[in-house]
């Protein structure tokens, strides 16, 4: 399914059982909210979390935020009821954990069969099996609801027995491969969480790394991370000035039909025009709030 251009700079996880956090999130400038039924919820609270997520969506007040519900994994005792609730919830997307391959996407897609056509499926990339299968998983975007990859770096670190330290050196290949597979099939790509919630310099550096890789934004675990994340993943004034110059130059009558022109002393091709148009579209979507 086609993925619309919309900002996904900041994607905040919230335990669906935390009423105070749900209320606060309605006041935060986040682009998307993930109501979590999985990792952040104890087994004995799964049913309560499911009902609270349903009620939170029914209550509304989320504005233009994209609303996503992370369900429990296929094969768990809670998956079937989670997916049935999500299908009828009015959420924008279901987030599928522990995706190992295209077969999992097919099963999640089938389980959402009763959902409205516009409901998307986002997939967590957090297992060692998923990394070599990334091209095949991304190819499921044709014919299923799959619309986004979300890195699960904490779970991946656990499986790899790797250390999740500043710089994320052990995960660089997986981060790059995830973005590459996503872009090859028109998917959004959202970076994993940073566990640092006090030293915002550490968080900002990791967010900058994600932006350098080409991620659309980053998943968050604390409100303090929202503003620095939005700053990193928003087009800057210099980028927008460049984008406007490129768009204006290609619109000149003398440049109609040309594949390459000179803009501000630099050779500029149609691929740069495409980049410029996307930057401007993202900036306009952010401005809409």
How many structural domains in the coordinates? 2
Named at the architecture level, the CATH assignment of the largest domain is Alpha-Beta Barrel
CATH fold group of the largest domain: TIM Barrel
Per CATH, the class of the largest domain reads Alpha Beta
Quaternary state of this entry equals: single chain
Mean pLDDT: 96
The number of E-state strands comes to 10
Summarize this structure briefly.
This protein has 289 residues and is α/β, with parallel strands linked by helices. It has helices spanning 19-25, 46-59, 79-87, 102-111, 134-138, 153-160, 172-184, 200-213, 226-233, 237-251, 270-287; strands spanning 10-15, 32-36, 66-70, 93-96, 120-125, 146-151, 188-191, 217-220, 260-263, 266-269.
